[in-house]
Amino acid sequence: MSVALRRPAHPRTSVIHRPRASLTALITALLLALLAAGCTGGGGAEPESESISPSGRGAGAKVLAVKIDNVGPARPQTGLDRADVVYVEQVEAGLSRLLAVYSSEVPPVIGPVRSARETDLELLRQFDRPVLAFSGAQSRLLPAIEQAPLHAVPPSVAPRAYFRGAERPAPHNLYLRAERIPYVAPGSQAVEALGLRFGPAPSGGSAEESRTVRFPSARTTFTWSAERERWLIAMDGSPARTSEGERLGAATVIVQEVTVRPSSFGDRSGNNTPFTETVGSGTAQVLRDGRTYEARWSRPAADADTRFTTPDGQRIDLAEGPLWIVYEAR
Questions:
Q1: Which domain of life does this protein belong to (predicted)?
Q2: I need a labelling partner for 319 at 20 to 30 A (CA). Which of 19, 25, 77, 252 fits?
Q3: DSSP state for residue 202 in the 8-state scheme
Q4: What are the angstrom distances between the C-alpha of 224 and each of 92, 113, 157, 238, 283?
């Protein structure tokens, strides 16, 4: 799928002629007016990137997290296949939404971008002040986002980093131009920021062909492909694809059993926003290399990493490639 841009029209400019102005002054005024209007190129030129100093919001952050839409009209998503880590969360009405985390590389366009949730603030504490790109949030949640240890970059902060695609209706058509926010990928894997690592599979496990995680109004299925050495992903019964038509896949899938409880927030339709508790401990299943491994997870505090271990306490390493973590209500 190609994303069509709506190019902003350039404002008209005028030059005020002063009786005593020199030719040089007039030329200078004209050039300044043209630059202000963004007309340095052809008639349809896009606006220049925002000028943000290196000390600006998000400079030096290890990861970029983007909140991504995951209902039918939002698919296929753009740039999701380039994420190092993808979280699948439950939101209002039992639907799912994604939080994609980038660090090794960042695609030029990511989306569709949607709004943040309270769950994201606790989850992202593991990444040590990440950049969070999102479309917005309800007004009561905004103070919590502002106080959270992260760099929030919604359209109100970086308006030129976002655009509306012409091929889909709002709100499923907001996209991020990642190069226009103050984040430079360090080239390292985001799993390293989580305290995880790639390595050999643990002993044991059992053969697994397919695993489905169900939310009240959504489901995500992972089916092992030995040929691709990936868990191919399906969403709500349909194969998940990239915007270029390729199948989405994960090298490792972690199904993390958590408490999902009502929060103090809701949407305009009266649906409560669920809060997913990611601090604590519990059971999990780790899927890699066509096998599933029973595991335990533990995160003692919000600023601590989540550890995944075998039942006897040995660390579980990941298969090389994208990691998907699905939060399943216990």
A1: Bacteria
A2: 77
A3: P
A4: 30, 29, 41, 15, 22
